[in-house]
Predict the 3D structure of the following.
Amino acid sequence: MKFCKRCLYSEEHPLLLTIGNDGLCSGCKVHEEKETLDWKKRELQLKEILSEYKNQSGNNYDCIVPVSGAKESFFIVHTLKKKYGMNPLLVTYNKQYNTEIGIRNLAKLRIELNCDIMTLTVNPEVVKKITRATLRRFGSLYWHCLAGQTVYPVQIAVKFKIPLIVWGAHQGLEQVGMFSHLNNVEMTRKYRKEHDLMGFEAEDLIDSFDGIDESDIFPYRYPDDKEIERIGVRGIYLGNFIRWDLKAQHEEMLETYQYGTVEQNRTFDTYSDVDCFNYSDIHDYTKFLKHGFGKVTDHVCREIRYGRLSREEGLVLVKKYFQKAPVHLKKFLEWIGMTESGLHFILDQHRNKKYWHRNENWDWEFNHPILGELKLVEDLLLDSDIVEKKLNFRKTRVSADCGNEYILIGKGHD
């Protein structure tokens, strides 16, 4: 297995990363565009697009922004409202794995930036049924989240005739260089199905064995192409027009809005996905079982590309986090109504047998080329705590002015 000589991704990345003869992966090469592109010119292109969609009569919203209590939501909404004077409608899919800090962040986002918001909460019993099915069939407890947060904005765009959806950065571009910034790639149903949803549309889940019928998958069904064409719905990515740096953007927004961050179990990044107790925990652990790496590798590769970590320092952080057991397992099992042994039985069916084998005691052992990479740093005496301190990811709480009243009244969230 070949690894990129700059970051820590291998040629077996599930998003089809490639490594050239120079030893650099496609993700690192596309990242280099950020240093050469004329970002002022590209922001002018963004301004033209936004001007085209601005509702001059004031009888509708200018665009839709998918948001959560984490990720890049504050930066996107702040940029659109404060810099470009847009009136966005915020939409959010209730993952049902919500953390308190994520709920408070979402409340703070819509109050501080004075936005209307629409939330989709699917019947929890239906979500559990779908999750049991996706766990069994392709080892994913997060499929419903990925499906919901990528389809609900499109459904609302069609329903309320708001043709422009504004996303943050494109995962395929940022991680593996699937596209160039110059392609100005936009939202597509094809990418959503093949990569976000692991090749399964909602209708593919209908199955008498799992007890899933048409009424269960209705909230996740993508609008018909004719409806999308009739409204002219398109989804653009700000990362094509603004030099994307998630860490720097969070820290700029934290100075302005003082929202909450939190220490996480399987990565050093205290900014991303703090709204969900599963994403960087149990969900990430299943990613490790299936692909041999987790979010800590994603975050390390990002920081290496921005020059904030050396490759050796990145390996130290991967070594610290990548095999950590999930801490929210009991909470998830109580929610879905499953035993721990039952969950492990299901997940064992999806372990990547290239990386995992049973030893003589019938215990699972991990055997992956990354272990050889990790040996490279054993003699360097690099301390993971010192490396993390160098990165200086902040750990903050939601400020006192975003108390219970922001959750219970007005535009808050109960």
